[in-house]
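Hi support team,

I submitted a single chain yesterday and got back a structure, but I'm not sure I'm reading the token output correctly. Could someone confirm the output below corresponds to the sequence I sent? I've pasted both exactly as they appear in my results page.

Thanks,
R.
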Amino acid sequence: DLRRNLNEQFRQMHPQLPASLTLTQIRRVKALILEVGLELNLELSTVAKAYVLLEKLILAGLVHKANRRLVGACCLLLAAKANDSRALRVDHLMTALSQLFQQPRGLLMSAEWDIFVTLHFHLILPNREYLPH
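Hi R., thanks for writing in. Yes, this is the structure output for that exact sequence:
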């Protein structure tokens, strides 16, 4: 009941979003982003920036039930490439994203560019946007 009520409140607060997308689904994608980040020992700021990128795409109405995992995986990939200053092993990241998000590597690579363009190439975020996460 609580989950249903939260999803209904979310729907009332954001009627412009696709009806197929629920707060529960968004939280699951964010949990997967965190899981990959912890598994690969990424900086927490990278995870927070991936959250912000995902939220920007959600609020733009570009995320729905069918593509939420793909978009979430691409957001983490882009955030890691832009933010993680340590030697990032993209092949390990791609493998983890492909497995946990259940998305083929080829689809991740092709969707990454589309999402990068959709974000207008803005991957450097001001602190005020990602610090709350």
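A quick pointer for reading it: The CA atoms of residues 30 and 51 lie 7 Å apart. Let us know if anything else looks off.

Best,
Support desk
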